Amino acid sequence: MRALPVGDRALLVEVSTDEEAQALHADLLRRRAEGSLSVREIVPAARTVLLDGLDDPSRLAAQLSLARLPPVPPPEKDAVEIAVRYDGPDLADVAELWGVSPEEVARIHAAADFRVAFCGFAPGFGYLTGLPARYGVPRRATPRTTVPAGSVGLAGPYTGVYPRSSPGGWQLIGTTDAVLWDHARVPAALLSPGTPVRFVPVDS
């Protein structure tokens, strides 16, 4: 684990894996909640966590360099359930990559316990981990110019749901009517880092 200064009051903490980033993020949130860490923002990514608004970044950097990361804690809240129709245009291609039938892709995906590792790309888009490593898939060789809102896709180790229509290169395996981002809702994002998620199959 390496902590790099960012300006006068921030640190970018680098770790080796996305699981370590999730564990660090959860531990920092715990420390802030109990009052042992004063920080304004804690922003996780794939293998980094940004801390902004620190009173003494150098002191925290020294502490982190000696710290051992605890495992990712179990979820503290119920999973967000997202109803999904496994009817995506890349479902057959993913089935071929996995060496199973399209129906089995749906079963495997729906049986996984997902967790939002971090958010980005577009408001409301969460990068979800939970599928075993053997089910990682490459992005499409040629991205689509338009992916419909509600598309459920796979890329590398992640699952994601497109909150709005946009270009994208993920392998699309399904669709959902869930609203990922609603500025009139509090909070506006359905998913946030650390949120447990389950996909529930529904008929097309």
Please name the defining characteristics of this protein.
4-stranded mixed beta sheet, 4 helices, Gyrase A, domain 2, elongated, alpha+beta, 204 residues, 2 domains
Explain what the structure shows.
The chain is of the alpha+beta class and 204 residues long. The protein folds into two domains: 65 residues, 2-Layer Sandwich (Gyrase A, domain 2); 122 residues, Beta Barrel (Cyclophilin). It contains four helices and 13 strands. The protein has a four-stranded antiparallel beta sheet, covered by helices on one side. It has a four-stranded mixed beta sheet with strand order 5-13-6-7. Strand 1 and strand 2 form a beta hairpin. Helix 3 crosses helix 4. The model has no long low-confidence stretch (mean pLDDT 94).
DSSP summary, beta strand count: 13
**Low-confidence sequence ranges:** none
Mean pLDDT level: 94
- What CATH calls the topology of the largest domain is Cyclophilin
Radius of gyration: 18 Å
Overall number of structural domains: 2
Fourth CATH level, the homologous superfamily of the largest domain: Cyclophilin-like
What topology emerges from the helices and strands here?
Layout: E1 2-6, E2 10-14, H1 18-34, E3 41-44, E4 48-52, H2 57-66, E5 80-84, H3 91-98, H4 102-111, E6 114-119, E7 126-129, E8 144-147, E9 151-155, E10 158-161, E11 166-168, E12 171-175, E13 196-201
Helix pairs in contact: 3-4
